[in-house]
Structure formats: structure tokens, C-alpha cells
């Protein structure tokens, strides 16, 4: 059995404040017995303040993968597997990125592949989806808009991912915001994508998200853990906090695939 935690929390430009909040969330997850904690996209440095027209002078701090802040993050993680989002510096390029690590070091990284219209002016796109082994099982990471595309999660599942860590800074609708967050179309889509990506690949999914506001955007929260049948096992709704669920990942996946095994029944020769 493994306990998985997904966080809803707000993070901004102040890296020291972000580390303090991470430390608190890790402590809370540890108290819950969690072995895996998935933090939101842009955990270190916050997200864009304007998704339609990002200010080039007000972007999140770009961090080199060798920056000492990741050693500090690993120290906080200790025995726990922790996934966190940040802006990655790579020469002249910047990437919306995620790292997965423990106190022993980095287990995997991901650069967001699918960039919505505003992000393309601030970030370069990643170009691959790779799963990696961790103490809690084989994990694959998705960032925000990546999970809108079924091929993203499917690529990770075909690479053996048992757990999908979906890190988000997902706001309410920018063009047609509803008066209540629960009525917002992005709120519905966020949950729909989480459940669909888990069910169609018959894997466990841990979905984190930012809360609060950044510039003109208001973030949904709605962190959750989803089982391989698409059932929501734990959730935060729109509040800040942790969604924590305990399950036997391998057994639950085997049960979901006992009769209908989606990955083995694929017919790739029939698809464009």
C-alpha cells in the first residue's frame, strides 16, 4: 500500500516563501504517511501573471537544473518522492518544467510539451514524454495543458508509467469566467481530463493545482487522486490543502485491466 498526496496551494515569485510553503506541505504530507507528494506547476517562482500577453519583464525566475535550490528541495523531501514545478533556464530558452526527487537526488524531469497561446511567447516547448522509476512505482509527469491531449498520458502509460503526476497552474476561464468557480467550464474540464486520462490508460493519477490569484488569473485548486477506473479517491475541491489516498497501485491497476486491458488491446495500425 502507498499513500499519495496531491496539493492545492498558492506560490509566487518569492522563492524563500515558496520553500517555506513547500516545507509545510511536505510536513503535512509526512504526517499523513504519504510516500508521494505532487506539488503544483510553478511551485518555485509562481506562474505567469497574464496568460494572454505575458510581460517579458515580469516572468518567473528561470532556474538552472543545477541551482542549489534543488538540493534544498531534496533535503526537505527526505524519504518522500516529491514532484514540483519551476521555470527552467537552458541557454537562451526557458521551459515550463517539473522535477521529481527524493533526498537522494533527482529521479526525473519533464518540460511541458503543449503550450497554450500565451505561454508560447514565454516558454519553449519540450519534445518528449518519459516515465521513470521511483520508490513508489514508475511515474510520468504532465504539466497543465499536456493533459488536454490524450497522446501525452498514453505515451507515458506505454512507457510503463503506473502513476501520472499532473502538475498544474490551471485558472478559471479567461474569456468567459462564470460567477461561481464551480460553474466555470475550466473547472469541469479540469476534473474531466483528470478522470479520463486515468481511466483510458488504467493508471493512478495525482493532480495538483495552484490556488489563489496571480495577476488577472484565478486558479481552480481541485487537487485530487484518481484511481485506474476513473474514480476520484480524494480531493480538495477549490480549497488549499492536500488530497490524500491510500491504495495498492499495482493491485488496483491489475484489477482494472483484468478483463479489458486497454494498452494491450490497442490497434495502432488503424490510427492516423
From TrEMBL:
**Superkingdom of this protein's organism:** Bacteria
InterPro entries (alphabetical): Aliph_Amidase/BUP, C-N_Hydrolase, C-N_Hydrolase_sf
Q: Which GO terms describe its molecular function?
A: hydrolase activity, acting on carbon-nitrogen (but not peptide) bonds, in linear amides
Which SUPFAM superfamilies does this one have? Carbon-nitrogen hydrolase (SSF56317)
- Domain CN hydrolase, which positions? 2-249
* Keyword entries, A-Z: Hydrolase
Q: What is this protein called?
A: Putative amidohydrolase
**Could you tell me which species this protein originates from?**
Sphaerisporangium rubeum
Amino acid at each position: 500500500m502507498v499513500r499519495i498526496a496531491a496539493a492545492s496551494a498558492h506560490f509566487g515569485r518569492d522563492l524563500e516563501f515558496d520553500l517555506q510553503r513547500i516545507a509545510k506541505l511536505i510536513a503535512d504530507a509526512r504526517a499523513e504517511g504519504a510516500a508521494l507528494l505532487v506539488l503544483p506547476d510553478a511551485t518555485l517562482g509562481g506562474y505567469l501573471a497574464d496568460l494572454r500577453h505575458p510581460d517579458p519583464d515580469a516572468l518567473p525566475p528561470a532556474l538552472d537544473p543545477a541551482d542549489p535550490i534543488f538540493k534544498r528541495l531534496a533535503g526537505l523531501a527526505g524519504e518522500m518522492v516529491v514532484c514540483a514545478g519551476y521555470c527552467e533556464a537552458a541557454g537562451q530558452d526557458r521551459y515550463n518544467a517539473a522535477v521529481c526527487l527524493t533526498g537522494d537526488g533527482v529521479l526525473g524531469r519533464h518540460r511541458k510539451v503543449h503550450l497554450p497561446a500565451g505561454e508560447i511567447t514565454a516558454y519553449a516547448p519540450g519534445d518528449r514524454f518519459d516515465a521513470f522509476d521511483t520508490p513508489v512505482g514508475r511515474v510520468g509527469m504532465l504539466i497543465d495543458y499536456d493533459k488536454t491531449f490524450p497522446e501525452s498520458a498514453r505515451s507515458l502509460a506505454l512507457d510503463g508509467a503506473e502513476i501520472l503526476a499532473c502538475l498544474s497552474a490551471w485558472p478559471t476561464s479567461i474569456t468567459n469566467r462564470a460567477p461561481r468557480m464551480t460553474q466555470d467550464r475550466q473547472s469541469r474540464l479540469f476534473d474531466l481530463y483528470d478522470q479520463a486520462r486515468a481511466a483510458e490508460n488504467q493508471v493512478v493519477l495525482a493532480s495538483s493545482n495552484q490556488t489563489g490569484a496571480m495577476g488577472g488569473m484565478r486558479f481552480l485548486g481541485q487537487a485530487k487522486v484518481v484511481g485506474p477506473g476513473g474514480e476520484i479517491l480524494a480531493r480538495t475541491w477549490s480549497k488549499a490543502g492536500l488530497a490524500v489516498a491510500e491504495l495498492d497501485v499495482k493491485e488496483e491497476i491489475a484489477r482494472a485491466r483484468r478483463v479489458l486491458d486497454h494498452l494491450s488491446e490497442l490497434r495502432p495500425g488503424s490510427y492516423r
